[in-house]
Amino acid sequence: MTRNKRIFSGIKRFYLRKSINSGLRTKKVNNLNTAKSVGLLFRFDELSDYEELQTIVKKLQDKHLEVKALGFVNNKRVTQHFLPVIAFDFFYSSKLSPLGFKTSQKVKDFIDKPFDICIDLTDQHCFPLMYLMSRSKAHFKIGKFSPEFKDIYDFMIELNEDYNPSDTYQQIEYYLNILNPA
């Protein structure tokens, strides 16, 4: 890693840590029976990712949950496959600032919504999505296990090497069904 990339990465980590403390929220453990709303953060690289998320959103909606998915598309061009629908919004890498921040109204709305549960379905720590998760006012935040991000998530899942969004959601759904919020 070059010196400039290390400095840039350090600046990003600084802002990420700073953002964790900037968003006041009420922490509350929820499961799929107690939740009324779910936010999903997702990275879209392929059409199959979009199709998998549609399946996950449908499962949650079948449980009568309000669902909002926000996807990061790491592509400089808007593709015709990722057209927004009611439960989905997108933001693109070409629209980010050099530090990876996005402040559009749909992103602000996602951050400010106090979801009962917010789930990061990415297999890797994508800075724009990590930043949104750190700022989110969601009551219960779930994501991939990483000691580096223990201050962002309330509940972390160890993921297999063979990442698949549907498998990840099934693992999370399993724990959300047996979790007793007390």
Detailed description of the structure:
This protein has 182 residues and is of the alpha/beta class. The chain has one domain: 3-Layer(aba) Sandwich (Rossmann fold), CATH 3.40.50. 37% of the residues lie in helices and 18% in strands. It is built from 5 helices and 6 strands; from the N terminus they run αβαββαβαββα. It has helices at residues 3-22, 47-62, 105-112, 127-135, 165-178, and strands at 37-44, 66-73, 88-92, 117-120, 141-144, 155-157. It has a 6-stranded parallel sheet, sandwiched between helices. Helix 1 (3-22) packs parallel to helix 4 (127-135). It is globular, with a radius of gyration of 16 Å. It starts with a helix and ends with a helix. The model has no long low-confidence stretch (mean pLDDT 78).
The CATH C-level class name? Alpha Beta
Return the string of H and E elements. Answer: HEHEEHEHEEH
Note the main sheet. 6 strands, parallel
Low-confidence stretches: none
Within the largest sheet, what's the order of strands? 3-2-1-4-5-6
Q: CATH architecture, please?
A: 3-Layer(aba) Sandwich
Write down the CATH topology: Rossmann fold
Number of domains: 1
Helix content: 25-40%
Shape type: globular
Calculate the terminal CA-CA distance, rounded to whole Å: 47 Å
Rg is 16 Å
Quick one: how many beta strands?
A: 6
- Mean of the pLDDT scores? 78
Strand content range: 15-25%
Helix- and strand-based class? alpha/beta
Question: Counting H and I runs of at least 4 residues, what is the number of helices?
Answer: 5
